[in-house]
Amino acid sequence: MASSSSSHHEIVECQQEREGSSATSKIYDAFISHRGPDVKETLGRQLYQLLEDRGCRAFLDRLEMEVGDSISCAINSAICSSVVEIAIFSKGYAHSSSCLDELVLMLHQRDHKSSMFVPVFYDVKPSDLRYIDNGPYGAAFSKYEREGRNLDKLDGWKKALVSASDLVGFELCRSGE
Q1: pLDDT of residue 18
Q2: Which of 110, 130, 157, 166 is disulfide-compatible with 117, CB 3.0–4.6 A?
Q3: Domain containing residue 160
Q4: The domain spanning residue 56 has which CATH number?
């Protein structure tokens, strides 16, 4: 099963990082997973600033990374070293394979009791994650299949979305919609 090696490799790295450090070595209070074009300059940045203003160290990708950092390594490390992971599920979330990979890793962390996961449903409903083919995420998964991209990850991504949909979270809508 070498086909799912990317996500598996990230999970193994997190386990090794966790085992090689003490339980108190969490670097971030919160990791914010989001699809940049959908919410980075709105809800994502507002949430980041709110947490920072209250003394929490938050990770919102490029705001916390330095020039020369490997994006995927920095993000995976931040997930593994966060107390809370927050996923902002927007209409375009599933169009980002990186967001879906983050989701799998965040839920893995939650399952191993090393962190807490908080879903934020922004202009989507939990049922949109549960019933992928009938909701806004169906087009993204159809495109992955049509283009033959990430086929080894599709089932894991779908399971992660269903798992996230079963958790109590926050449902937010843009005002006026």
Answers
A1: 44
A2: 110
A3: 2-172
A4: 3.40.50.10140
102 is catalytic: yes
Exactly one of 10, 102, 145, 147 is catalytic; which is it?
102
Q: Nearest to residue 82, comparing CAs of 25, 28, 10, 33? A: 28
Domain count, the chain: 1
Q: Per residue in 105-147, pLDDT tens?
A: 999 999 887 789 999 999 999 999 999 988 889 999 999 999 9
**How many Cα atoms sit within 13 Å of 38 on the Cβ side?**
20
Tens of pLDDT, residues 102-112: 999 999 999 88
Contact present, 89 and 122 (Cβ < 8 Å): yes
CB atoms near residue 126 (< 10 Å): 19
In this predicted structure, what is the pLDDT of residue 10?
56
Extract the tokens encoding 121: 């449903």
- Which residue has tokens 């999970």? 11
